Input
Amino acid sequence: HSRHTQHRPIAPTPSGCWLSLRLSHGGGKLETLPRRDAEHSPEGQIPERPQRLPFAPLDCRVNEVEYTLAGIPKYRRCHFHSVIMAPLDVDASNPCVPPSHPLVASVPPLPSAVRGEPIVIDAKCGRINADRPVLLYSNGRLVVVRELEGDVGGSSDGSGESKWKGGLSRPHGVKAFVYRGHMAQVTAAKFSPSGCYVASADARGHLRVWSYDNPEHLCKLELSSAMAGPVRDIGWDFESRRLCVAGEGSKTDSSSECARVIQWDTGVTCGELGQHTRNRAASCAFKPSRPMRIATGGGDDSRVLFNKGPPFVRVVDDKTMASEKCHERGAVNCLRYSPDGTKIASVGTDRSVVFYEGKTLELLGRMADVHTNSIYRCDWSSDSKYLVTCSADGSAKLIDMEAGSELQSWDILGEQRNRILGAKAAAMGGASSSLGDSASSLGSPAPKKKSATELITSPLGTTADRQGRSAQLRPDVGGMVMGCAFLAGDLPVAVCLNGEIAALPLPSGVGPSSSASASGGATAPKFLTGHQFPVSAMACDPVQPGRFYTGDTDGVMCAWELGQGGRSLAALGRIERVASESNDSGEESEGADVSLMNRVHTGAITSMTCIHNSGRGAVLSAGWDDAIRIGDGTKVRDKVEIEAQPNAIGRGTELVAVVTVKGVILMKDNTIVSDGIIDLPFQALSVDVSADDSTVVLGGENCNIYVYSVHPRSFDASAGQKELTLKQERVL
Output
């Protein structure tokens, strides 16, 4: 079956056959799976054609068994008697949501990011999505379509229900669709110009073209070997009929390609594109008008190859050959055509931006040293007047194509450092770390202008260049900007290595009035936060209703709050690990996180709990760094080290029990009050504490429940014994 189909054996019949339900997004099939034995079903006997059901069945049972084929018991046929029917959920890719408790609010994961690899995000989401800000990106094996209306300052009607394109009703709090069709990490995803289809590809070279506006999100095309290696970029032609795919081909197979152009529905090749050195391509772009052109950027050879068609073939002439080698070194990370098709922009690891004529592919100009580190992505505004770029130096820049100059610079890394680390940011990062001290601070144009026709006249390695490269060695790698795009309404957004999405305000007088109003007159980026990795723990605040905290497998913790009677969900921000007040000195203590990756733990978080007593509240988390972290819901300052890996936390009123792989630990007032780890005769997996702190209940790996009473013991300072111990009362 396809990966969207579940084949579930439901119940055995008297003959030994199994009644099976084949479930899919569009409904289901009811069929029998016969036993392959001589008595009931000879080898090779084909069962009767499955009966198609017009709904999605959840359960059934056998009611009648009858003989077929003139009474010869070659196999038996089962009729279903009772079927529990349920309507399809609004998000067909979320079958785990029970019909009795429909989804009312959700927050999707943030984009996945790998250091040194650009993030492919798509905000040009087609004609049917042109009226709303939609962002398409990947997270692990998921493809996320996220609507940013309201999250980036846009208006929201606040009604109870809204409509996805395609007519699907959805609760107003559900602003994302998650597609789960890939079996490997998704590396690229792009909307078709019509907005009806999405092409997505993964690290194994698999390509899928699936319907976005159809409730079942059917797969139109699936190529299991579009590339021999990871697919790095995808491009659609303006007719939504052809696809260009760039990635990594095989280094040993001469027939393998790193750039291909195919028909969107059949996968038939539409020509032979130029191939790059070492069979690696990093980006591709389709000209959005006739005559058709395709440009591809090399992953190693620093070249931009041009192709014309259809059928497509590489353009080889003196003018084009000269334009191919405008990047000095490294990879051409991104190529993008302007919406009017008159220009192409390319960026790469040599920190330059190169512009070409869209039809003749003639070199128009080159801006050198636009950033102080590798440039990862670029994107055009809808009027083809502005280009936004992002870099590993933690900044994003806006280039005015008409004036041929750099118009605006956003210091995203500096803003994150100031927001997270506060007053210590300037001391740690130097003058360039502070927005107020930066020469290209938000709200003021950068004083240095670079002409679009300027060519490089000085070699790499100047003082400014060396300073730029030294900034790369700083520990704040989470602020590297790995992707950028213009949303609908020409509002630029950028994605950092830590996954946070930054909405960048445009300077006054730039762009249409809609984008200026969307930013609300703000002068600093607005960050959308959440989790990049699977959520592994959660704790509800006992004092503040509607507030809860989550932790993931990367050690990141987030605070959340429910609103509108539980029908909306807002991220309050990530919980930061900072230096302890007792260690607040000139140098940073172990507790401070200066990487900007927002990790509270250095390992996966296994459990969390909230405790409130004596007017003080605390959030406790246990992680695989063998530590208990204690915070106030916004920052984590204290740490309690333990001698074994923790797996679960339970709390009473003041007493906290921590289950580890070696036993259990008792804590009170953020201090261990047991004599180290209390040994257990079984492997404990879960724990809870009674409200009066007198009983501890443990769940064992042997499927038993153990009830312990808490007893004080005399304190012996010489032996180092603590106050409390456990005594087993009963086993359930």
Notes: The longest helix spans residues 412-421. The longest strand covers residues 568-577. The helical segments are 318-323, 412-421, 425-429, 463-471, 513-518.
